[in-house]
Amino acid sequence: MSDPKKQRRLWYTVGGVLIVAFLAYGATSFKSNLTPYVSFEEAQRSPRKVQVAGGLVPDSTSYLEAEETLQFGMVEDGGATMTVRYEGVKPGNFEEATQIVAIGTYSSGVFHAEQLLVKCPSKYQGIDEAPRSYGSET
Amino acid sequence: MGRVGATLKWLLLIWMLVVIWAAFLWVPSAQGFKGESSRIVFFHVPTAWVATLAFLVSCIASVMYLRRRSPVDDHRAAVSAGLGLLFAILATVTGAIFARIMWGAYWNWDPRQTSITILLLIYAAYFALRGAVPDPEKRATLAAVYSILAFVTVPFLVFVVPRIYFSLHPDVVTNPDPDNRLDSAHALVLLASTMGFTGLYAWLYSVGSRIEAIRHRRRQEVL
């Protein structure tokens, strides 16, 4: 209390420690809770509704027009695959999907999706331009 | 405000009108997007950028307040945090609209959506804190410390989270794949729009700071 300089330094130290602690807390506590996506393995164990994310297994799509049932294989980052069934109209350009999010539950070997989020390849490049030949500049 | 300020204000209006025209009519439709949804990038990215900038300015003003103890710095910090919150909400809304069109749902707690929600709550709490302390000096000190702590989370929530987790969110500005970058028309309009939105923020910030200064003076006169 007697030396204001010392006191100020103390406050700076306390502030610095607080900021570092805050960062560390943020990094650790958010890590597991921030993403809603679970792994396929977790989805198969969980009885609750979960979200899984991954890519589309090429040529795995089959669609029954009459019953509006879409079935396809989904592949995870680590390489695990899972069969997904979705009852509803097939989203447009589904075969081109680069990333798929399925929301639903897993039972008896199949993931029953209630909702599908589909991301198709897109570029912020005009479609009016002539198609480019990439990699041929040299 | 002076003549320079007035001129800048009109220039900003013309600039923004040109940006809006270019965003909707001049830039060609983009590859692979549903409808014209790609055009939202010219408003979504600048609002997110301005929100980050505004939170940074609030943090700097808060540091200044703790050093100088001038009520002006406190007003600046509060005005900038308010603008940051406004632009962060705009970024959230434009993002949700894009998500509905492109992926099929307004909201699915994608990591980007979760992180901006946390950010909105953190800065909403800043105003709850300000509203809860009646003594101006105590309020300014507490708010300044809180604003600095709040900004510590911003780089984490805005830049780190989307790069750690799987996310549907497009990564156009820092995309490592050169084939996926913006073409020159998109890049030009995005840059112009970002500059325009930054100017808009600067103008709102100056108006807000002056309003706070007048309020402060009137309170002093009453006392």
Structural description of this entry:
The complex is a heterodimer of chains A (138) and B (223). Mean pLDDT of chain A is 80; it is low at 130-138. Chain A is of the alpha+beta class. Chain A contains two helices and seven strands. Chain A folds into two domains: 1-34; 40-119, OB fold (Dihydrolipoamide Acetyltransferase, E2P) (Beta Barrel). Chain B is an all-alpha fold. Chain B has one domain (2-27, 37-222). Helices cover 78% and strands 1% of the residues of chain B. Chain B contains six helices and one strand, in the order H-E-H-H-H-H-H. Chain B has helices spanning 2-26, 41-68, 71-102, 111-132, 136-164, 184-222, and one strand at residues 30-31. In chain B, helix 2 (41-68) packs parallel to helix 6 (184-222). Chain B is globular, with a radius of gyration of 19 Å. Chain B starts with a helix and ends with a helix. The A-B interface holds A 15, 18-19, 22-23, 26-27, 30-31, 34-37, 51, 53, 77, 91-92, 99, 101, 103, 115-129, 134 and B 27-34, 38, 41, 99, 102-105, 108-111, 114-115, 118, 145, 148-149, 152-153, 156, 161, 164-166, 168, 170, 172, 179-183, 185-186.
